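Ticket #4471: complex job returned nothing on first submit. Input attached below:
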Amino acid sequence: GAVVSQHPSRVICKSGTSVKIECRSLDFQATTMFWYRQFPKQSLMLMATSNEGSKATYEQGVEKDKFLINHASLTLSTLTVTSAHPEDSSFYICSAWYRATEAFFGQGTRLTVV
Amino acid sequence: GDSVTQMEGPVTLSEEAFLTINCTYTATGYPSLFWYVQYPGEGLQLLLKATKADDKGSNKGFEATYRKETTSFHLEKGSVQVSDSAVYFCALRLNGGTASKLTFGTGTRLQVTL
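Support reply: We reran it on our side without changes. The output follows.
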């Protein structure tokens, strides 16, 4: 069945550095992918919609320059957290619709900025 | 705007108890409704869905009926198991297509004890 794979599952980085998170659709093409952020014991907050071959659409309040999204192919979207700071520590999840009927989610990436 | 309201958790039950997690929604159109489950440290998995009024979604002993008159999609299970311990999210999707967004409720944590 359709799967969305996210990598890495965990990452620890130093404050001021950048971190890239990959989201791949396996066995299907995804022209659109979604990036969410989840705080502890809270719901998912949609950060941005990633569009293959065009600019991402960011939700209100999300810093475009902080969270860079690149959707370079039909199976890969990347989220780069630039100049990360401890407040960027969170659980990031990507998703994509399979045949427009079921949304599949990546396993999530736990980012810790120290 | 569109929104989903879930009952506050955590919900703590003994094994084999009956489970109900309430979910109500507000939407400008006719949404599809979903229940997702998230196990610790993981992404979300689709549990069940319903695409129109009076539809019943079911999976793994869980059921939810799309009630247009009460704008509800309550999740039920007749006999919970320890392995059902997770966070459950109710969500709606207003439009079809691979670029459509999911709107999530805040999530309800379920803890099942022996």
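The longest strand of chain B covers residues 86-93. Closing as resolved unless it happens again.
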